[in-house]
Amino acid sequence: MQTSVVPLTTTATVTEWVTTSTATTSGAATVTVDPPTPTNLISNPGFERGLEGWSWYNNNPNGWSGNVVGTNAADGSYTNAMSVTNTQYLGFGDLRTSMPFTLDAGRTYRWSFQTRNSQGRDPAGNIYVSIQSDGYGVASSSATGGQAIGNGWYQYQGTFTVSSSLAGPKGVFVLGETRSQSAITWYFDNCVVIATN
Length: 197
Fold this sequence. Notes:
This protein has 197 residues and is mainly beta. About 6% of the residues have low confidence.
């Protein structure tokens, strides 16, 4: 009688990001697979490539200016950021993504961005966030309750869930700036929209 020993290789297809146990001849093997890092739907979140993927508009060029500049990030490193300066109590500014992203019906997303300003004050009443789809508002919020993250920077965030009527490949992230009674410069960096489920 002849005995042949043939090595066996098993494979597993991961359909959910969970810890699974597999029975083997020598016992049980447990494999934990970390969930994937969510994909940021904004293609140039930190303005590393200038205004590529963004559009900047204001309705009073005498009182508003905007461009990408180099500055110190929250962690002390040197980074690009969008700089918006308002010098007159007139008009508004509008910074928005120009490359639409897909929003799925019933899915919840988280938006966030980092900002600081030349007066070191909370942006309440001066900055609003809007998520739009084909020109319709999906979510809108004023930027309040930020978390300090260093070097005068604050991070603001919120969540929204997409209805079936607004789902599709036409999502846009908007940072709007309203006029200030005194001259002020805002800096924006690390803009994020990610799915949470």
